[in-house]
Design goal:
2 domains; two-stranded antiparallel ribbon; binds iron/sulfur cluster; 6 helices; alpha+beta; 7 strands
Length: about 170
């Protein structure tokens, strides 16, 4: 192509450069930042277990709290943690934003409570999750079970089954 054709084509063809007000549309299911809602998290560690690159870790060194930790630089945005979270505490933002890459961990602390039967540290399911599961108001029996640690919940359930069979 000679130079005159090139100049003519540049005049005829529309510009390829996108203008600031002509943004590329955001694709459906776009994964922006990973959002962790601390008030919905029960520190079950499922997200850390399924995260192959180890972007999510837990710190349980402090009494009375568990810390959910996220290292953005290790995250591949695969979404396995979001799919696996039993309480929907994890999701992806959908708005593209300028991500500031930082070596600093994102750290969210989750308070633990004593089991009402044995006093062991535990984290009850948040009210929103219980209500979604059992409706509102949450049955008293379920609310009481929710304040027990896993071990005591198993004991209470097996005692109830035993009572059902033996009557005592
Ligand atoms: S899977 Fe969900 S509830 Fe469990 S620790 Fe991770 S964010 Fe919290
Ligand atoms: S999106 Fe994937 S890589 Fe990122 S924290 Fe979740 S499981 Fe790990």
């Amino acid at each position: 192509m000679n130079i005159w054709n090139l100049i003519r084509n540049n005049f005829v063809q529309r510009a390829h450069t996108r203008r600031p007000d002509d943004l590329v549309p955001v694709p459906e299911n776009f994964r922006a930042d990973l959002v962790h809602e601390t008030n919905l998290c029960v520190a079950c560690e499922t997200c850390a277990y399924v995260c192959s690159p180890g972007a999510i870790t837990f710190d349980r060194s402090q009494l009375g709290r568990a810390a959910w930790q996220y290292q953005m630089l290790q995250c591949t945005y695969c979404g396995r943690c979001v799919e696996s979270c039993p309480t929907d505490a994890l999701s992806f933002g959908t708005t593209p934003q300028l991500l500031v890459h930082s070596l600093e961990l994102t750290r969210h602390e989750i308070e633990t409570f004593p089991c009402t039967r044995c006093g062991a540290e535990m984290i009850p399911l948040p009210d929103a999750v219980l209500e979604k599961q059992y409706g509102f108001p949450v049955p008293t029996e379920m609310a009481a079970l929710n304040r027990l640690c896993t071990r005591c919940r198993k004991k209470v359930t097996s005692e109830a089954v035993k009572r059902g069979f033996t009557g005592r």
